Automatic annotation (TrEMBL):
Name the UniProt record assigns to this protein: AraC family transcriptional regulator
Domain HTH araC/xylS-type: 159-257
One protein family per Pfam: HTH_18
Domain of life of the organism encoding this protein: Bacteria
Lineage of origin: Bacteria, Pseudomonadati, Bacteroidota, Sphingobacteriia, Sphingobacteriales
Organism (species): Sphingobacterium puteale
Length: 257
């Protein structure tokens, strides 16, 4: 399987964190694990037999919006496939699609219309595009259309709060963010939850987990306590508890998978 990690064009970087491309020309079964990362997204797939999300057993449409992934999931694919994921900064869900972000946590939203064009026409254009670059351009243009029509509904203060948390790898205190934004903590949390589907505290916890997961996957440590203290956990038991909550297994077990 080939995996590409593409930095989004500057024109969409305000609301797109990353673009992931998964491709495989083999006819075998592929299982792609996904864990909490703080980012909802748009997913397009071109496959022989579709994709199924486990443990929900849900067969997914060709193009859909998914919310915060909090519990671990696997995408099951049979046969050759091409999957494109636009990871979105979570402050766009309510503004762009008019949905309550909390309602699609660990779930998805089926797209029916774009801001200017019928979504089926857009899907058809993506399917018939001959290159990955062209498919990405079509999806990027769709998001730019949403931005053009809905940018006045975006809460840019929440976007700033998201960036503070990302830059600190989830270790920053929410009180410190509230002070930077000249808000009380309760107001910040209310606005953050309204726009993203999770509280600022929960988002920080997810970002902190992702930082530790990356360190574990890249084996950038000598002993487990290196990860614990590099990522701001109180102690090893705290880290193990959080890690297991997001992955279903302990760090030690995960490292052996």
């Amino acid at each position: 399987m080939d995996i590409q990690n593409i930095v989004p064009d500057q024109s969409i970087a305000l609301f797109v964190k990353n673009i992931l491309v998964f491709e495989d020309s083999e006819s075998s079964e592929t299982i792609l694990p996904f864990f909490a990362d703080g980012y909802p997204g748009l997913l397009f797939h071109q496959t022989e037999n579709g994709i199924t999300i486990q443990p929900h057993g849900k067969k997914m449409p060709t193009f859909f919006l998914y919310g915060q992934t909090i519990k671990p999931i696997n995408i099951h694919v049979n046969g050759h496939f091409q999957i494109i994921i636009f990871q979105l900064y979570p402050f766009v869900l309510r503004a762009f699609w008019g949905i309550n972000p909390r309602e699609i946590n660990d779930s998805c939203h089926y797209l029916t219309t774009g801001p200017e064009n019928d979504i089926n026409k857009i899907i058809s254009n993506i399917l018939f595009a001959s290159t990955i670059e062209e498919k990405i351009r079509i999806i990027a243009n769709l998001l730019l259309d949403y931005f053009k029509h809905k940018s006045n509904k975006l809460d840019f203060l929440v976007r700033e709060a998201i960036q503070y948390i990302i830059d600190s790898r989830g270790i920053i205190a929410i009180k410190e963010i509230a002070e930077k934004e000249k808000l009380n903590i309760r107001t910040l949390e209310r606005r953050f939850l309204r726009e993203t589907g999770v509280s600022a505290k929960q988002f920080a916890k997810i970002v902190q987990f992702q930082s530790s997961l990356n360190q574990l996957e890249t084996k950038d440590f000598s002993k487990i306590n290196d990860i614990v203290y590099a990522n701001g956990y109180a102690d090893q038991s705290h880290f193990i508890r959080v890690f297991k909550a997001f992955t279903g297994v302990t760090p030690n077990t995960f490292g052996k998978i």
